[in-house]
Amino acid sequence: MSHDNYAVFRECLSSTIVARSEENKPSKTPRRRHKTKHVSIPPASTPERADPEELAEFIDFLASESFAFLPESLQSLSYAAIQHDPHLANTYNTDTPLDRGTLDTLTSPIPVEITDSLTVYGIISSPDNLPDFLSPVLSEYISSVTAAPPVWIQTRAEACEICERDWIPLSYHHLIPRGVHAKVRKKGWHDEWMLNSVAWLCRACHSFVHRMASNEELAREWFTIERILEREDVKDWARWVGRVRWKAR
After folding, report:
1. How far is 212 from 219, CA to CA, in rounded Å?
2. What is the model's pLDDT at position 74?
3. What is the rounded CA–CA span in Å between residue 183 and residue 147?
4. CA-based angle 231:237:239, to the nearest 5?
5. What average pLDDT does the chain have?
6. Angle between helix 52-67 and 3-23 (nearest 10)
7. Cβ neighbours of residue 200 closer than 8 Å, sequence gap 6 or more
8. Under a CB-based contact definition with an 8 Å cutoff, are residues 197 and 173 in contact?
9. For residues 229 and 201, is the Cβ–Cβ distance under 8 A?
10. Closest listed residue to residue 177, CA positions, set 224, 219, 213, 226
11. How far, in Å, CA of 125 to CA of 120, rounded?
């Protein structure tokens, strides 16, 4: 399971459930109650809005159970994946809505506990509505995870992406050093769209990265900030340099 993709799916599901909850919110007009007969109102329909913590737990349950039953190709879908697999690109084409056959195929393995929960809480009117309910969720998810990368030079961070100091000047580090771009292309190490990816680093961390590995090693092994941050020497460096501070003049 891709944790990043799961987080995107959960957010897409959350926005849809929150919107449905608002649509199904009871009217503010007080109900007239019978003077002698007690009328029981289900707890979920009593407040104008659901308790935020309970709603968050409900969404976590739905997201984790649903995502686990989606095809692996959909769980790990990415911009890079659709560049290399025409079938994936055609199946999850963001220019056209998911057809009913694809929706049924994607949603049929989802456990009945999910449809029962959605029905009990009034999110869907019957289990048969699950594909229609998940259609915008899946469309938004697919669109998000297959979006082309941003113009890297315009992704400036507020703080150094290694030491996290936010009061010091930053420069951009080419994660795939420009001096080896020709070799990267020849060897096919990375797609063309990745060549200008950058990380925003303070000068001290920028120099450290270039000391820790050669340009070729950076291009082959340490071509994302996430990979760099996994190194123990980088973690030790970040803890130390993050404490190096001086007073502004």
Report:
1. 13
2. 95
3. 27
4. 105
5. 84
6. 130
7. 155, 156, 157, 160, 161, 170, 171, 172, 173
8. no
9. no
10. 219
11. 9
The domains of the chain are located at: 3-25+47-145, 152-241
User: Residue 95: is it exposed, middle or buried by C-beta count within 10 angstroms (0-12/13-18/19+)?
Assistant: exposed
Query: 31 in helix, strand or coil?
Result: coil
What is the distance, to the nearest Å, from the Cα of residue 15 to the centroid of all Cα atoms in its chain? 13
Number of C-alpha atoms within 13 angstroms, CB side, residue 141?
Answer: 27
Residue 202 backbone phi and psi in degrees, to 5: -75, 165
Q: What is the pLDDT of residues 175-196, one digit of tens each?
A: 999 999 999 999 999 998 899 8
The residues, any chain, with a CB within 8 Å of residue 85's CB and separated by 6 or more, are none
75-124 confidence digits (pLDDT tens):
999 998 998 899 999 999 888 888 899 999 999 999 999 999 999 888 89
Low-confidence residues of the chain: pLDDT under 70: 1-2, 22-50, 153, 246-249
Question: Tokens at residue 236, please?
Answer: 């030790």
DSSP secondary structure, 205-226, as one string: HHHHHHHHS-HHHHHHH--SHH
Q: Which residue has the tokens 């890297």?
A: 152
pTM: predicted TM-score of the whole model, two decimal places: 0.66
